[in-house]
Write a structure and sequence with these properties.
Number of helices: 3
Number of strands: 3
Number of domains: 1
Largest sheet: 3 strands, antiparallel
Strand content: 15-25%
Shape: rod-shaped
Distance between the termini: 27 Å
Order of helices and strands: HHEEEH
Helix content: 40-55%
Strand order of the largest sheet: 1-2-3
Length: 132
């Protein structure tokens, strides 16, 4: 059966397989991004709570703006680290941390999900583009 003369051919709609791939990839990216945010926000909150309770001498020195005392955050492993000088020696104290495997897994999901969305949305070579 062919279309009557003068009528344009029917275009295929978006494939269900492509829609499912886009749904799965965007879901994985969302889970990864949210997990990354929760992990690093949790480290920041735990570091702030530790400074309020004044249990850690390094954080007390940091709150009093003593020279050589500083707080820094690392990406992998995810940690809040307080560094200060004690009798001329630099000492690092891990104030808050999260499991490295959790952070790596979250980053893999986030980056992999975004890459999956990009691949799914990229135009396929060799296929005619509508209106183009």
């Amino acid at each position: 059966m062919s279309a009557p003369a003068g009528t344009p051919p029917r275009r295929r709609g978006p494939s269900r397989r492509r829609a499912l791939a886009l749904l799965v990839a965007s879901g994985l990216a969302l889970v990864g991004v949210v997990t990354v945010g929760v992990v690093y926000a949790g480290i920041g909150v735990r570091t702030l709570r530790a400074s309020v309770t004044a249990d850690e001498p390094c954080l007390v020195a940091y709150d009093q703006d003593r020279a050589g005392a500083r707080v820094r955050y690392t990406v992998l492993p995810p940690q809040g680290v307080c560094t200060w000088d004690v009798d001329g020696r630099t000492t690092d104290v891990v104030v808050a941390s999260a499991p490295t495997a959790l952070a790596v897994g979250a980053w893999v999901l986030a980056v992999g999900g975004v890459a999956g969305v990009a691949v799914t949305l990229a135009p396929r070579p060799g296929r005619a583009r509508p209106n183009g």
